[in-house]
## 1
Amino acid sequence: MLHDIDSLSAAVNAGDGVPVRQRSPCATCHLRNEHFCGALFGNGADAAPRGTSRLIAARQNIYRAGELTDGVLVVCDGWAVRFVQLPDGRRQILSLLLPGDLVSPTAILERRFTFSIQALTAVRVCAFPPAQLRARILRDPAAFELWLDAIAGALRDAERRLVDLGQRTAQQRIAALIVHAMARREERGELDDEEFAFPLSQQQIADFAGLTPVHTCRVVRSLRNDGICDIGRGVVKILDRAALSRIGSLR
Amino acid sequence: MLHDIDSLSAAVNAGDGVPVRQRSPCATCHLRNEHFCGALFGNGADAAPRGTSRLIAARQNIYRAGELTDGVLVVCDGWAVRFVQLPDGRRQILSLLLPGDLVSPTAILERRFTFSIQALTAVRVCAFPPAQLRARILRDPAAFELWLDAIAGALRDAERRLVDLGQRTAQQRIAALIVHAMARREERGELDDEEFAFPLSQQQIADFAGLTPVHTCRVVRSLRNDGICDIGRGVVKILDRAALSRIGSLR
DNA sequence: CGGTACATTGAGAAATTTCAAAGTTGGTGG
DNA sequence: CCACCAACTTTGAAATTTCTCAATGTACCG
């Protein structure tokens, strides 16, 4: 995955910061048989919705709160975050978006959101026309089921996070973030290594966990000093998997 | 609404703590023309799902995490909370449930949840068979739309709460709870009084806002001393509406 | 009348934030 | 290859918020 991101970076840089648009590259997409891209959008079905893909450089906004979306977005490659920006400039990250993630399952209902989306690495996203998707969901019970699952999953996830923020300490919340990234990584069958890419800055970890970057720094250091995990330089090394999941796993 | 709850209490007490079951009282339900109960379940449609209603006394559990639900639940009368219980006994309240609220729009998918539900006052809930609802949603695009709206609303709400817990102070979160209760009250067209029923104990306010009951007590007192609002004895008096909504309103 | 749950208070400890400054890192252009 | 810049990380010290523990006060119910 790391080299995927690297080659994406090159592509984006060649485009010189301007989003590069491309007509439905789904035919060759490595995700086409997984997640939504396989089950919902494609695989030779007669009227499979067709998407338009965009490349976004790291740190660029993929979507700004309040604007009109260009469709139902799926992250094809790279990492992004979905966040709310408060009037005083602070941010709360609502969720991490990894390859294969549907950005918002409510996008077939609304085309404006109160959250924004920012690329952490170079990112490729694919946009599908809401109307087509909606039609497909109404026509095809399997697609309907899949969509319900997606929404239910998003809701479960948001409520898990809510408990996390309401009841758990800074250390537990940061550990939970690492555990979550680890779990996502495993479920996509990537090499279960002791070290993997984790492109969040401390500021971003802070925004995720509802903390100050300074305090985040201290907690990250304590996790390192206690031999639990070493977060930094775009990667995380798992030092004590048992201790980490004891601290971080929700419930 | 207060006297509604009082008469409900009497009914529940007559039943002596044992949940009282009743076959589909929707025909005479005062909610039948509003919310889900009107648009989704009823109003003379040929195959409108039929519910079974239950009465629950204050402080009793309506549903316990992990058990099988007896259907898709709607709160008909009274106040309840949906909460997660942690292994160490602490609780996080996920949402307030008021009359007309669908308990969980994902209930047509799953029959077990990780949250529990407790009655704050005497409560009447109505349970509808998931399969019938699901069929209706697939058959009737208006019902489908309505259901999507419900889920999207739940998701928006959860994410608003997430930002609240992640970014705001104890005072702001408690004020937000009052503002929310006030808004719900207004949207159901109840008398826009300076004082209204608010049957949460300080412990429950604490569980909602992710705080300690002791700290909650101090914040509640400060809100009273600062002439903003007076929470207690099952009611809240709004003392300075402008200040309250300045402190409490999200974003 | 007693009991149970709920609310309040005080004092001290712990967690987290704030402010401010200094150290690191990686990328860019000369 | 070096210098520089910008973003990110680390550190210290003090303030603030929130929690913990423990005791006391209060209201309602049977």
## 2
Amino acid sequence: MDKRVERCKSAGLEPAPNLCEACTARHRGICGALSDAELRELATRTIKRKIESGRTLQADGELVSGYANLLQGVVKLSKVMADGRQQIVGLQFPPDFVGRPFGRESRLSAEAVSAVEVCSFPRAVLEDMLERHSGLERRLFEQTLVELDEARDWLLALGRKTARERVASLIYMVAKHIPAGTPREAGERTSVQFDLPLTRADMADFLGLTIETVSRQITRLRQEGIVDLHPGRQIEVPDMERLAKAVEG
Amino acid sequence: MDKRVERCKSAGLEPAPNLCEACTARHRGICGALSDAELRELATRTIKRKIESGRTLQADGELVSGYANLLQGVVKLSKVMADGRQQIVGLQFPPDFVGRPFGRESRLSAEAVSAVEVCSFPRAVLEDMLERHSGLERRLFEQTLVELDEARDWLLALGRKTARERVASLIYMVAKHIPAGTPREAGERTSVQFDLPLTRADMADFLGLTIETVSRQITRLRQEGIVDLHPGRQIEVPDMERLAKAVEG
DNA sequence: CGGTCGGTTGACGCTTATCAATTCTCGTGG
DNA sequence: CCACGAGAATTGATAAGCGTCAACCGACCG
């Protein structure tokens, strides 16, 4: 048995047979930069893994040993201060690439916030592929630029927005990223329903607030009719326009 | 006269003769990825410009028309909300690259916060150079990764740090970036003195605070003996260790 | 059935914003 | 050279928004 497969097993993970041709993300994310032949090559060097919620993909300060394409679920990137204060500095959705190219250490950890499925590969594979397929580097670069933009959007949110606006911003962002659950019948308003994969604690850590403040602001948005809460972290947004307004005031 | 040179003149800018061989940044920034021959080629297509404090290099929403290497001075990147709230999302120091590769629009503006000197070139030149010198793309990519890291560090600051810690963090960061003015004689403590190129308003916009709070926290750091203020935005840090402690609490 | 965890709600206090007045700095022109 | 004015910075008084502490509810699991 392959050594990597073995390591996965021992970590309680479940490697699956891996055929890029059947992968839903093969034309998205960084894989979109590869030809069919290249995808076949990649298939021999990657492992599809399921990761349960709460498990750590990459710990703060640990050497980068591997990378992954996110296929399903949500991953949070977070930083902690010496005294325990914590801040989530990014959320990743499919088909994002997870990991830091070129082995620069970066002081952050990546953790699954829901059941997650990734296509993972060791560091050497990425480096090898980068050398041989220049389109890949461009693709990674572009994603990094998008992440930089998103980080800067959140800087604006954390620096200048009120608690209510921040919560609205988060819900708005997730609504835009998640494959819309129920876009409702055409005749009705633009009602959207989806699963919010974050706990109140995660939301607070992302928004630079406390659990209590997040909870209060959500109640407020509910009373205002901007969101509807359904059991099991389901959120319904009856009118995206109104939510969008709450994002900026 | 070259058309570009003409445009510069008309904008009140002063193009200078441009010899990469004599440039102080030729081995740093993205130029460090180029050979002597390539630098000579680049020299024919760039213009060294001086830009006065307050002038805008790239306005929010405007199409990216050109790029620049920062040779001297400091540039701020900022975002504004519809109602005027403003947030600085990044500061750039020499020899940083200024501008957004691949023409993605990004909703931010770049403005000189001190007298600035840049080596600028039109968009087409960057694209052309990128195609012909693959090391260049890597270099740009690496800088973008550093910027992403810095943005995430500030997310932690804005989300979780107190006003005092934020102000200390900013002073600390500038102290690390600015070519140290007076490292003092070897026998003494590690005293550092430098110019803080930001107004209180800029600092506030960067730290997500108000002018008044920034001012109060600086007075406090002064009373604690962590910083010394000298006329003309000169700051002296008698002991970097103590400042570093203030950064995290 | 009790225990834990996630979430909500309330009372209170602290940090920071807001409003306002004053001082400082520096460039300009008399 | 000094007076003047405008913008930058400081300081004070007050208020608001969010954090802290604590009680409580409901779901889930052993």
## 3
Amino acid sequence: MMLEQAARQLEALGNPTRLSIYRILVRAGAEGVPVGHIQEKLGIPASTLSHHCKRLIHTGLVSQERHGTTLICRTVYPAMEALLGFLSDECCVDGSLPPGVAMPQTLQDA
Amino acid sequence: MMLEQAARQLEALGNPTRLSIYRILVRAGAEGVPVGHIQEKLGIPASTLSHHCKRLIHTGLVSQERHGTTLICRTVYPAMEALLGFLSDECCVDGSLPPGVAMPQTLQDA
DNA sequence: AAGAAATTTCGAAGAATGTCGAAATAGGGC
DNA sequence: GCCCTATTTCGACATTCTTCGAAATTTCTT
């Protein structure tokens, strides 16, 4: 059930705070970002941040590495690529639309 | 805040049942799929399915069209592309990894 | 207009989330 | 060993999900 895994990761990203964290990490690249820096940028309590980080880590989208007293978070790119791949393959997109698709209609809300 | 919108859509996809629904719709293409057919495939109560469909529709990822007594659901491809675009741009991936990324490490769990 | 078919809306109940402060842990430096 | 910094863990509480049956709605058919 690859779908279960994908759902867990999508759910993890489906929270404004966690998506913000993830974006910060992706943009930081291989260097990674100390938890403390993320906290400064987001301005949220450490306990809340820690909770969200744990959730991201648990799904395999993010990894952590200790450097002295600071914990550095990093995007796990293969995981991200796998997720995007799932959405593109299992669910298509990438230009090769599924059989019968005729360049769809627009719609924006929420 | 494009991020808010993306988070809402990711959250919508971050549920196994809804991701299954979405996958069925994407694979069906422009034809779309009647709610009843989705119910048969998933084998869940109509009220539950209706609830999940509403959620997907509310985020703009899915649209509905009436055909007599049946309601046909369809993927809103532009929305999907926008979401994938957000993940690829705001968060990169597509080969053009962010500054400093050196082809990452592996990691799978959860 | 009556009846049947396809879905949605309406509660309700239990499970899972999101947040936050206080207290506990891990690592380094003196 | 003690203190300081960086984070996590531990409740706790309010909010939002998830599910489902029963009843209401919409539309077509006769």
